[in-house]
Design goal:
Elements (H helix, E strand, L loop, with lengths): L3 H5 L27 H21 L2 E2 H8 L3 H13 L3 E5 L13 E5 L1 H5 L7 H27 L1 H10 L7 H14 L4 E6 L2 E6 L5 H4 L4 H14 L4 E4 L8 E6 L10 E3 L6
Antiparallel strand pairs: 1-3, 2-3, 4-5, 4-8, 5-7, 6-7
Helix pairs in contact: 3-4, 6-10, 7-8
Length: about 270
């Protein structure tokens, strides 16, 4: 067998032992070295795992392996390396309602550090310091006013990009997902049984919003105005969730399209 020596624990005779003399003219077996191509492949696969976790949020090893065409052993090897490097954390899968026997599956989520490398988090410290100054000198109302003012330009750009979206809130949510992706939010919209769902897989201000939720609240108000109906924020990256998720209730008398539009972009 190709790996019999490795499996038996014996070291194959691939070259001279360090410090041992080799008679002149004696043949020396080739010494295996780590393949540069193999290391590059590992990095490429890890990038694919990172991208998938960015798009989907909390995901099991089985789901990752299936999506990437990797065996359970292969995906575990990559995830173990990412755990050691601090790029992912493992959590128990949240199961709503009754579940079968056995322990819940583990899900993997990108850490803040890994997520930060997928987008831009420039000037977080100074932004947080500025908002703290505003809060000290003007109170929470001043922070809220600042947050509202900050999303005005974003709302204007997204509204312009949604000119041809029509009046249906779900169709507008799909158009908004594309507009938000162009702004760096890696968004997608989908139709679900209770209406629609807008997911943002990246948040440029997540670290700041963790301390000042007014930023999330102002953004939610913008989403509501742009889709043309009341919406509900179910989860946010700033609060430790894998994805910012906004629910768009079904409109009475409107048929559901069943469409899912994914417009995730992670190269910005």
């Amino acid at each position: 067998m190709k790996n019999a020596a490795a499996l038996s624990g014996r070291q194959p005779a691939t070259g001279p032992v360090a410090g041992a003399s080799v008679p002149a003219g004696a043949p020396v077996a080739a010494v295996p070295v780590a393949s540069a191509g193999s290391a590059a492949t590992d990095l490429s696969t890890r990038d694919r795992v990172t991208k998938l976790l960015l798009e989907r949020g909390a995901t099991t090893a089985a789901q990752l392996g299936s999506a990437l065409g990797l065996s359970p052993a292969a995906i575990r090897r990559h995830l173990d390396a990412m755990l050691v490097d601090g790029d992912v954390v493992a959590r128990e899968q949240t199961v709503r309602g009754s579940r079968g026997r056995g322990r819940p599956a583990k899900v993997f989520v990108l850490t803040d550090a890994a997520r930060g490398r997928c987008g831009t988090h420039h000037y977080d410290n100074i932004a947080t310091a500025a908002l703290r100054w505003i809060a000290r000198n003007g109170g929470s109302e001043a922070v809220e006013a600042f947050a509202t003012d900050q999303v005005v330009a974003l709302e204007d750009r997204c509204r312009a990009a949604m000119e041809d979206a029509g009046d249906d809130p779900l169709a507008r949510a799909e158009a908004l997902a594309g507009a938000l992706t162009a702004e760096g939010y890696a968004a997608n919209a989908s139709t679900i049984a209770s209406g629609g769902q807008l997911c943002q897989h990246h948040c440029p201000v997540a670290h700041v919003a963790a301390e000042f939720p007014q930023l999330c609240e102002a953004e939610t108000a913008v989403i509501s105005r742009l889709v043309g109906t009341h919406v509900q924020r179910l989860a946010t990256i700033a609060h430790g969730d894998g994805v910012c998720t906004t629910h768009i209730p079904a409109q009475p008398g409107r048929a559901q399209s069943g469409r899912t539009v994914t417009t995730v972009r992670t190269d910005i």
